[in-house]
Amino acid sequence: MPSSDFSRRAHNYEANAHIQERLASSLVESSLDVLDKKKLEIADLGCGPGTLALEILKRGIECDIENYDISQKMLDLAKENIQTENASFIQQSIPIGDQYDFIVSNFALQWYENIQETIKTCFNKLSQNGILSVCLPIEGSFDSLKECFKKANAGEYFFKFPKESQVLQMLESQNIVLKACFEESMTFDKTIDFFKSIHIIGANQAGTKLSSAKLRKLMRYHDELFDGKIIVKYKILKLIVKRVV
Questions:
Q1: I want to staple 47 with a disulfide (CB 3.0 to 4.6 A). Which of 57, 64, 67, 206 is the partner?
Q2: Which domain holds residue 92?
Q3: Which residues of 27-42 are buried (b: 16+ CB within 10 A; e: fewer)?
């Protein structure tokens, strides 16, 4: 995902990323239940507007938190939101330090070009008993659109998410404290409203341009699947893994 897509829409992200915000709270709550240190060294990958950091700080956790994002405008927004001298803001995708107690990523790893290498690198940067916590959409998300692509002759289905097996491959021999797979739904009046919401938060997939005629046909077929409100579902993987050296 190009940083320009997120940068152009940074100030629209907070108002539209409702699922991301809800999952951030859940991920932080589950992770802090596992950690037992008084002060934490934390890295947040794909920090966006700083939602995870705010969830951590409002719980009174003593920490130093490094916020990473490829979009400078997202980092600027995070800096506006996070009012603490213990936070830093770094424009890159991988943590620069090592010996972290807590590396966390919410709805971001799906955009990484090599998710397996990213997970391996992050896991090796954890201290003893440190945890890697991630929440991300996986294959099976937006499945109601797949058949509509075929029916509309709209080409290859362009909403591509990592497979669960890809994410787990680097962690099979590790201490998985929590693994959960579940669905989260979004409801819209029309399919076009769903596409607009994806566009607003900058979460378009690369190479996804369709002709106006094919896009209209795709949306019409998808609307016809539902009797009333349009329901689009994310399939989500939530993981907490502890490094035991």
A1: 67
A2: 3-139+161-183+235-242
A3: bbebbbebbeeeebbb
Residues of the chain with pLDDT under 70: 1-17, 201-209
Write the DSSP string, 101-153.
Answer: EEEEEES-GGG-S-HHHHHHHHHHTEEEEEEEEEEEE-TTTTGGGHHHHHHTT
Tokens of 26: 């859940």
Q: What share of the chain in percent tops pLDDT 90? A: 67
| Domain membership flag for residue 198 | no
Q: How far apart are CA 150 and CA 154, in angstroms?
A: 6
- Decide if 203 is inside a domain: no
Q: Is residue 173 part of a domain?
A: yes
CA–CA dist 18, 129 (Å, integer): 31
Q: What is the CATH number of the domain that holds 165?
A: 3.40.50.150
CA distances from 89 to 14, 65, 71, 73, 83 (A): 18, 9, 11, 11, 12
Provide the number of structural domains found in the chain: 1
Contact 71, 13 (CB under 8 A): no
Which tens digits make up the pLDDT trace of 16-53? 467 888 899 999 999 999 998 889 999 999 999 999 99
- 22 assigned to some structural domain: yes
